[in-house]
Amino acid sequence: MQWPDLPTAQRPSWPQDGSLERVRETLASYPPLVFAGECDVLRSRLADAARGEAFLLQGGDCAEMFDSATADNIRDRVKTILQMAAVLTYGASTPVIKMGRIAGQYAKPRSKDTETRGDVTLPAYRGDMVNDFAFSPEARRPDPDRLARAYHTSSATLNLVRAFTTGGFADLRHVHEWNRGFIANSAYARYETTARDIDRAMRFMDACGADFDAMRTVEFFASHEALLLDYEQPLTRIDSRTGNPYATSGHFVWVGERTRQLDGAHLDYVSRIHNPVGVKLGPNVDPDEVLRIIDKVDPDREPGRLTFITRMGAQTVRDALPPVVEKVTASGAKVVWVSDPMHGNTFESSTGYKTREFDDVVEEVRGFFEVHQSLGTIPGGIHVELTGNDVTECLGGSEKILDADLEKRYETACDPRLNHQQSLELSFLVAEMLSQRLA
Ligand SMILES: O=C[C@H](O)[C@H](O)COP(=O)(O)O
Ligand SMILES: C=C(OP(=O)(O)O)C(=O)O
Ligand SMILES: [Mn+2]
Q1: ipTM field
Q2: Largest CA distance in the chain
Q3: Between the N and C ends of the chain, which has fewer C-beta atoms within 10 Å?
């Protein structure tokens, strides 16, 4: 496929020695990671979310790392999302669309091109798909071979995710077992109570003769930011059923806040593929620009095609979101509105770590629900950075992580993630907001 030569924000400075072109050819020869038909199923699920008949739970690492793609880490992330989904589904009696920021989330946009430590300045880390996190000139050099490694690691990850979600592990009848391996805490205890209630409901349905085969498997979708078009374009394939191009690197891809220029390569790319796609919107977005994004990416106003992931900030969401939602609603477009309560709430702790307050995260989601409630529009989902591990990256939560705790297990390669307990806590709070949405 020929791609127009458009301004491409955040593109790494790849070496000019032909190695990038060789890797792109190699990627183009590899099998797709997802099937176009799966992307179509997701689009129809997202159309349900746009109508308020389902809710999207999208979560995972800010930046996946090759070395972290272990069975335990993948299992614990999937379990965390399944647990949150069980809490939301049960608490709000709503179907939950489960989507990981997983199996492709290997490239990061950066606010600065360089990082300085002491008197040494090096190129910024841009995700394992580009360079290495270690702070040395060799590690930080962009290496095109990493694009192929990202493909293989994504493939192995997705294979295990598919095995877990279709092989019986995600069967709701095992809702208790998903807690095994996690450290017992207050969110865990509350989850156990919900799991017991779900169990009782399942036994009741069983006694009534319900057919449980459908519960053996869950639909689980993979998503990532379509940041590196040198990865996405070679993995874009023509669907043999329809003749339409699809990104086959994941079911859903989004364009980030730093790369959504109307005349840029990223929006051009997602306007050509037929997957459901997302665009992030920050607090300074101009509502008229949002209409032009819709015209470009979703000219046919296809339900489920376009998701706006709003990340306004806890203090800003109630002012910045309404004009955008009002303009979009007046235009007749039926988009999915999703809250990312992470990226507008990042700050540096007194101890020098990039962090977020759990209460700010909750407050932004609350503001998001309130805005939609007051405008009569649909809050369709949440998008969170999380991990199944007991890291100490975000402050607060009932565990009360303090500044001084951040150094204990600060393991992220980019942004701070909710840990397992904070993720479960958030799901209980969002379940309450969601059940009120339906009231
Ligand atoms: O999700 C990622 C970050 O918010 C983004 O990469 C910017 O981070 P930075 O300001 O540390 O570069
Ligand atoms: C970079 C990210 O977000 P945003 O584009 O909203 O800043 C991200 O989702 O990790
Ligand atoms: Mn992030």
Answers
A1: 0.98
A2: 71
A3: C
For the CA of 309, the nearest atom of ligand 2? 6
Is the Cβ–Cβ distance between 81 and 418 less than 8 Å?
A: no
pLDDT of residue 179: 85
Angle between helices 358-375 and 317-331 (to 10 degrees): 40
Nearest ligand, CA 416: 3
Distance CA(219)–CA(222), nearest Å, equals: 10
Provide the phi-psi class of 280: left if phi over 0, else alpha when psi is between -120 and 50, else beta: beta
pLDDT interval class at 197 (50, 70, 90): confident
Beta strands in 250-329 (DSSP E): 252-255, 277-281, 306-310
- Domains parsed from the chain with CATH numbers: 19-438 (3.20.20.70)
Q: Quote the CA–CA distance of 64 and 79 in Å, as a whole number.
A: 17
Residue count of the chain, please give it: 439
47 — phi, psi (to 5°)?
A: -65, -35
Cα separation, 393 vs 409, in Å, equals 7
Residue 125 DSSP code: P
Instruction: Give the residue with greater pLDDT, 189 vs 102.
Output: 102
State pLDDT tens for residues 12-41. 999 999 999 999 999 999 999 999 999 999
C-beta 305 within 6 A of ligand 2:
no
Q: pLDDT tens digit string along 330-353?
A: 999 999 999 999 999 999 999 999
Tell me if 417 CB under 6 Å of ligand 2.
no
**pLDDT value at position 205?**
85
Residue range 282-309: mean pLDDT, rounded: 97
Ligand 2 neighbourhood includes 86 CB (under 6 angstroms): no
pTM: 0.97
> CA dihedral defined by 419, 148, 255, 9, rounded to 10 degrees?
120
Q: 270 C-alpha vs ligand 1 centroid, how far in Å?
A: 22
Q: Mapping DSSP to helix (H, G, I), strand (E, B) and coil, where does residue 222 land?
A: strand
Q: Which ligand is nearest to the CA of 354?
A: 1
29, two tokens: 């020869």
Burial class (CB in 10 A: 0-12, 13-18, 19+), 117: exposed
107, 128, 89, 3: which is closest to 435 by C-alpha? Answer: 89
Range in 183-197, 333-347, 394-408 the model is least confident about: 183-197
